[in-house]
Amino acid sequence: MIHSLENLIDQFNKLPGIGKKTATRLAFAILDMEIKEVEIFSNSLILAKKNIKKCSTCGNFSEDDICDICQNQKRDHSIICVVEDSKDIIAMERAKNYNGVYHVLHGKISPLNGINIDNLNIKKLIERVAKNDIKEVILALNPDLEGETTAMYINKLLKNFDITISKIASGIPMGGNIEYSDIATLSKALEGRIKI
Amino acid sequence: MIHSLENLIDQFNKLPGIGKKTATRLAFAILDMEIKEVEIFSNSLILAKKNIKKCSTCGNFSEDDICDICQNQKRDHSIICVVEDSKDIIAMERAKNYNGVYHVLHGKISPLNGINIDNLNIKKLIERVAKNDIKEVILALNPDLEGETTAMYINKLLKNFDITISKIASGIPMGGNIEYSDIATLSKALEGRIKI
Description:
The structure is a homodimer. By secondary structure, chain A is α/β, with parallel strands linked by helices. The first copy, chain A, has two domains: 3-51, RecR Domain 1 (Helicase, Ruva Protein, domain 3, Orthogonal Bundle), CATH 1.10.8.420; 67-191, Dna Topoisomerase Vi A Subunit, Chain: A, domain 2. Chain A is built from eight helices and six strands, in the order H-H-H-E-E-H-E-H-E-H-E-H-E-H. In chain A, the strands form two sheets. Chain A has a four-stranded parallel sheet with strand order 4-3-5-6. The first copy, chain A, has a two-stranded antiparallel sheet with strand order 1-2. In chain A, helix 1 (3-13) crosses helix 2. The N and C termini of chain A lie far apart (66 Å). The interface between A and B is large, with 48 and 49 residues. Chains A, B: Pfam families: RecR_C, RecR_HhH, RecR_ZnF, Toprim_4. Chains A, B: Residues 78-173 form the Toprim domain.
């Protein structure tokens, strides 16, 4: 086989969710591109990796020491939304109805994957709550076992502060179907019912 | 938004079959990688693009002027299998029951996409058949409208040479289901029936 092609396929194959077949397709797409375009792609990998660090306040990815959201004085800095990952911030921002700031844990408690409390950005969250005038902490963790465990743990740590701690709602997604919903989702939806 | 991250997402987004969501996931995966790994990935793109050219005999991708298959004297150089794309050679080689050589057209006749005869590696195929002692040309083009048109056209060009021209069989795929087969596949399977 062609060594440099095999090598490129292997590199694509290392990315999450990219199997051998897709990796092959992508590698061939690179061969079909102009050398100029490939150079731009190649450089953008290095540039992104070198330029992007974690915001020293919230842990979000940022090109500056403090991220855009933490720097934005128009946002409500008394509400912190805790998320697992920077990707979740992008999703939340897309929804356009949250104006507070964030705190990125960079994972969730998952002993099976070797991730415990010390690997997560939790200590800085407690410091933020202790040092600033925070009114509410919203836990926006994925509603799975590890997410719930992490939420419970953070809830315990923050209990003694005079703040509201909330959790985003679990339930049937918009456009979803009661008939085909799983039992866990349905019971969460019932538990979390709100008066109309 | 973070400029160099947006840029990297755009680059992944340009690849075929990679939508905005997958591109975002891949870009974040890059940020999670070690800088050393990202450099290897970045270099492998440039290396593949710079090192790989087209075999001057068959048009297959190759790091040398003549590809491994055309150089291999253990293969039967009197049988040429015509394929649309280098990717098809990888698939054929995986099947491990073909020992001839190949010819890559780099596309198929498709006027709607602006690809006509002159854009394809057909002239060199005719030269190969004229200059060498060829016994058989197997047309292994995808069984769609453009593939069939291309096969018919090549068949016409090669008709006057004293060679066998064949076409790979169309029919129900192994493990497939007659009940759920489309009409075109079923009628091809019937047409191409063989005595047992």
